[in-house]
Specification:
Elements lengths: L9 H11 L4 E5 L25 H6 L1 H18 L6 H11 L3 E6 L5 H4 L5 E3 L2 E8 L5 E3 H11 L37 E5 L8 H12 L3 E5 L6 H12 L4 E4 L12 E3 L3 H11 L6
Parallel strand pairs: 1-2, 1-7, 2-3, 7-8, 8-9
Antiparallel strand pairs: 4-5, 4-6
Length: 282
């Protein structure tokens, strides 16, 4: 394995190109891919200290749900104003060239889809949908946002929201906030995202496994691979003897298994890979 911190030297990019060229690639992306769009990473250098919502807390504590919903709404309003960056666009370009066969993302921001990637598995869910935990009704997040603002007309999105990677923000107060409930059964609503301590739906992970099984190489971008789902994906690739290229600022839990590790920004490196990897015929 080769590695060099902070920059993306030509020799490491050349090694990555050699490892990936002529192979169908599946991309696994984490929060580091979206930092250049203004969405912070949980663990990257300079990331603010965050205490993410845990499933056990959300399901058991009404006050915690109230705090989460107001923070999630404030954050979501800012979240939706972000745009895909050069890294997202490079992956979409590689997909159009037949090089990338699909994207497995740990992000819930939807930026890969907005960058026109077409085969995207959002392993940790999406902020675009809201689910009822009691009857299973599915809502468009925009409809829930409209209800929140109608029921809480005092809400105003501040100019400088301290945004989290999951679209959450820290509210100044939760006093008087009316939490939305299910219009079908009156049950508890939750954004369609996987909280800490919650399992990824089995059918969703099977789709991710199928992408890895149908690929010939794995490109990891912007993930520290601390979360178990990333570890499982990289292990599937290792067992299939696929080259593994990791692009991430700082160490990851997959570095020892990487064919090439590039310690640099994802936008820069992915753009260079999109320029240098030859297209694959259908």
């Amino acid at each position: 394995m080769s590695s060099l911190p902070d920059q993306a030297p030509d020799d490491l990019v050349a090694e990555a190109v050699d490892a990936l060229a002529g192979r169908r690639i599946v991309a696994l992306t984490g929060a580091g891919v979206s930092t250049d769009s203004g969405i912070p990473d949980y663990r990257g250098q300079g990331a603010p200290s965050r205490t993410p919502m845990k499933w056990q807390t959300f399901s058991a504590d009404e006050a915690a749900r109230r705090r989460y919903w107001i923070g999630s709404h404030l954050g979501w309003r800012s979240f939706t104003s972000t745009e895909p960056n050069a890294g997202h666009l490079a992956i979409a370009r590689l997909e159009r060239a037949g090089v990338v066969s699909g994207v497995i993302t740990q992000n819930v921001d939807g930026l890969h889809l907005r960058a026109d990637s077409t085969r995207v598995i959002e392993m940790h869910g999406t902020m675009r949908r809201v689910l009822c935990l009691d009857c299973g009704q599915v809502y468009d997040r925009r409809d829930i946002a409209a209800r929140i603002e109608a029921d809480n007309p005092w809400i105003a999105v501040p100019e400088n929201v301290v945004l989290g990677p999951d679209g959450d923000a820290l509210p100044e107060t939760t006093d008087g906030f009316v939490v939305p409930d299910c219009t079908v059964c009156g049950g508890t609503l939750k954004p369609d995202v996987v909280f800490f301590g919650e399992f990824i739906p089995a059918d969703r992970f099977r789709l991710a496994e199928q992408l890895v099984a149908g690929a010939e190489a794995l490109l990891v971008a912007g993930s520290s691979l601390v979360v178990n789902s990333g570890q499982r994906i990289i292990e599937r690739a290792r067992r299939r003897h696929q080259p593994i290229v990791i692009v991430n600022r700082g160490e990851t839990r997959g570095d020892r298994r990487a064919t090439v590790k590039i310690d640099a920004g994802t936008s820069e490196v992915l753009t260079r890979l999109a320029e240098e990897l030859p297209p694959l015929l259908p």
